[in-house]
Amino acid sequence: MPIVFENLKKLEYRGYDSAGVYFFDFQGEPQLVKEVGKLFNLERKIEGKRSLPTMAAIGHTRWATHGVPNEANAHPHYDCKKEIFLVHNGIIENYQELKEELLKKHRFRSHTDTEVVVHLIEEYGFELALKKIVGAYAIAAIFKKEPQKIYIARLGSPLVIGVGKDGYYVASDPTALAGLVKKVIFLKDGQRGVLALNSMNIGPARPKIVPLEIDAEQAKKGKYPHFMLKEIFEGSEVVSAALRGRIFPEKNLIKLGGLESIAANLPKIKRMEIISCGTSYYAGMIGAFLFKELANLPTETVLASEYRYSRDPKQNNTACLFISQSGETADTLAALKKSKEKKYLNLGIVNAVGSSVARETDAGVYNHAGPEIGVASTKAFLSQLSVLSLMSLYFGQTKFGKNSLAARSLMAELVKIPAKIQLVLKQNEAIKSLAKKYAHYKNFFYLGRGYNYPAALEGALKLKEVSYAHAEGYAGGEMKHGPIALIDKNFPVVALTNKNHLYGKMISNLEEIKARNGKILAIATVGDKAIAKLVDDVIYVPETLEQLEPILNTVPLQLFAYYFAVAHGNDVDKPRNLAKSVTVE
Predict the structure, then answer these.
(1) Per residue in 79-94, pLDDT tens?
(2) How far is CA 287 from CA 44, 220, 283, 328, 550, in A?
(3) What structural domains does the chain harbor?
């Protein structure tokens, strides 16, 4: 049980509102303990209760979907006779229908869809119960009569088995297993089985054991007060890691091993769809600019949650690129399933090795950013932009035989970006002061054009996620088409005004804002002294190519959001109502 509890702590970052454990004490008696709120509330309730180390134990942190956060709705759930105890991630889509059937013979104690599963098992047994479920699940269950076994099953929700020297472990996220095991099994959809102390029986397909590529030290805060700040400061390294061994400017060469198996098919591709959610979607928007410019490939970005329900006709010679930090995002996986049905070429950009997106796509590229613990994505976004730059260059390389002069310039500049990120991070204290200065404002516009329009959207999202302030990202040219009506002295604008071919247009936008008494915080290129006379405050970033400006601009936007939220006393690593991996629709 101590192992279960410690590993629940490792998953706090994913978001939760209640928690519970089921284990056997030193007398061999079963113990079920549940509590609402933070894990330390649960810890107080189980304090002094020691478990028998040779017995099985399960634990769960719940993020409410069906039923309010309370003790009854917390996991583990149990059957009528208190002989089956179960934890579950996912959504049981036909739970109402199943519940109506079960209510004739079974007593329900919660308002969750999960409790249906445990009563189904009570009624029909483990295997037959699974066949009746429509939806997504990752299940771990203990039968009181078999206290040394854990029954597991996976369909649509992530589940990973840790293979240790002294036994087997199961978790919804490999991060929980870091430091505990060195080898894991990523269960595939439809796989199920039984784990015991010295044995494992998994089917129907034979499980594949792979190394766990997570360093336990990476999942610790170290000297930083929050994971979010630590991960912002890792930005330079994650960009370097994304580029390492993949970019060779002196040879005019991009090498992406993950795409070599399908490289011969790339010149045939006539259009690209980049499909993702949230921060990954904004990265995809920047990626679309890159693919159009560097690979001359018509590209559009689509929200995964919209793509899965769209009725767009099949178009030949299409590639779909799926971006997901976790590789387990429910909407993205559903969109991938639809794309596979159309027999498109499916590619992935994923941070989590062995995740569902990584396994289900035809080919792809890993971020190599290491575990991202903060709920608000920071370093993963920078690595996604880096990989998108590499992929667009690679597509151009395979399509035209060699990279263009513009592409070669981008390659030469891309390798300089990590050092330039370090220069931005040196302004940490100045950005902290600015965040405190603006902390009393409740509304913000984030403004950008071209490549910096998606960066503005991402900047606004970060502020919303961790501070709960209202923030909107807009394309600069759209200001006069309605939003400018909101501008006044209490509605500041964060403007991305780098010295690029749209600089004059952005300056015109800022003039319009100042004419209406709007406050302006600008992100500008080093050496631009003129802009300081127009705006209220400036954060300078090093000069770079326009295509790479979003990478540098994102760093001060992340720091601003972080310190703005800290000024309000928020728990920035675990923002309210948010989960790190959105594994349910």
Answers:
(1) 999 999 999 998 899 9
(2) 48, 31, 6, 21, 11
(3) 2-218 (3.60.20.10), 222-415 (3.40.50.10490), 422-573 (3.40.50.10490)
